Amino acid sequence: MNIVGVRCVSYPFDFQHSNTSDIMYFKMSHGEISQAFIHLWIKPVRSAPGSKHVIEIYKVSAPVDKNNYIRMNMLSVDTVNLEHNKGSWIRYPVFAMVADWATNPDNNLGMIVIMKGPDDNQIAVTNSKEEPEKAPLLEVQFIHESDKANRLARSPDGGKCSLTETRCCRFPLPVNFTEHNFDFIVAPKVYMANFCNGTCDYLYAQQHIHMAMVQKIHSGTATHGPCCGAKELMPLNMLYYDHDRKIRFDTINDMIIEKCSCD
């Protein structure tokens, strides 16, 4: 079996208000994850160039009894550099907390992020009603097991292809967006696009011998034979910045070659 990553994005569907901060609650699927990040819009801050601002991440826990308030368990404290008087998105890792939510759904009571500016006001947008287009979002990389053949080269009939195969096959092709200067893409940074390559013999190209023989008879007047190309393509979920520097989540069609064939 082989490990295959499936990336998804979740927006907070419900906001509650504690005594001092907004609670961000994200619906989670059950499963094992490899990565998790919270994306937050930080408001413009008037501060000296190079100044750092503290970000605090809290996990919300149930109260000890009904008469108590919810508990805020601090998970991390860090500093973030912000440009003077300019809003921006930040991407912060929250793996431990989200991994617990994914395996123990009852523990998913939300999270709290506190990040304050020089005037002690919250500068991280944690409430979608405040700025709907800049609402926080959670990026999660799930781990799924699939047949190893899904990641290896595959022939048109679904069989495995060796690296020395000369007939039409699907071969793995990793694409790194960062290397091609696609900096506007937030996730994934790398994905497996795959490609088709190889020769197309007539008997190999057709599923039925009759069709292969008919094509062979008419091949004398043909300028070229069948070519190896994509037969089935799959979409890719992407997280990216649009022209207004707003984060968007979309599904882009025909980004991954699933099967190849001789046509």
Automatic annotation (TrEMBL):
<keyword id="KW-1015">Disulfide bond</keyword>
<dbReference type="InterPro" id="IPR015615">
    <property type="entry name" value="TGF-beta-rel"/>
</dbReference>
<dbReference type="GO" id="GO:0005615">
    <property type="term" value="C:extracellular space"/>
</dbReference>
<protein>
    <recommendedName>
        <fullName>TGF-beta family profile domain-containing protein</fullName>
    </recommendedName>
</protein>
<keyword id="KW-0964">Secreted</keyword>
<feature type="domain" description="TGF-beta family profile">
    <location>
        <begin position="151"/>
        <end position="263"/>
    </location>
</feature>
<comment type="similarity">
    <text>Belongs to the TGF-beta family.</text>
</comment>
<dbReference type="InterPro" id="IPR017948">
    <property type="entry name" value="TGFb_CS"/>
</dbReference>
<dbReference type="InterPro" id="IPR001839">
    <property type="entry name" value="TGF-b_C"/>
</dbReference>
<dbReference type="Pfam" id="PF00019">
    <property type="entry name" value="TGF_beta"/>
</dbReference>
<dbReference type="InterPro" id="IPR029034">
    <property type="entry name" value="Cystine-knot_cytokine"/>
</dbReference>
<keyword id="KW-0339">Growth factor</keyword>
<dbReference type="GO" id="GO:0005125">
    <property type="term" value="F:cytokine activity"/>
</dbReference>
<dbReference type="GO" id="GO:0008083">
    <property type="term" value="F:growth factor activity"/>
</dbReference>
